[in-house]
Amino acid sequence: MKGLMRGMMVAGAVAGVVIGFGSSVEARPPYKKVFESTYEKVAKDNKVDCNSCHVADKEKKERNNYGEALAKNIGKNEKDEAKIKEALVKTEKEKSAIKDKTFGDLLKDGKLPASK
Known about the structure:
Layout: H1 2-24, H2 29-38, H3 40-45, H4 65-73, H5 81-92, H6 103-108
Helix pairs in contact: 2-5, 4-5
């Protein structure tokens, strides 16, 4: 009986750790993949990572100006690559933090669109 209880406690602890890790990270790999295929020159010349849409905070909850604009155009946790690309293209038209430049202008110049 003691062995059974101990086994259940260990299993519960392991499950808690796995669930804890699983819920703390919400990476969006399709976003990065579609961004890199849509803007190949930008991806080739720059490091495309979480900070392309987020500020450098630990939990990646705060978005930079490009990330905020993209969030308005994309569904929450969108997985459909066509819809992600549609949102990226729509976001190109929005004004960046650079005077007289849209995000699309910056992307066409081979630059990451966010001001950091």
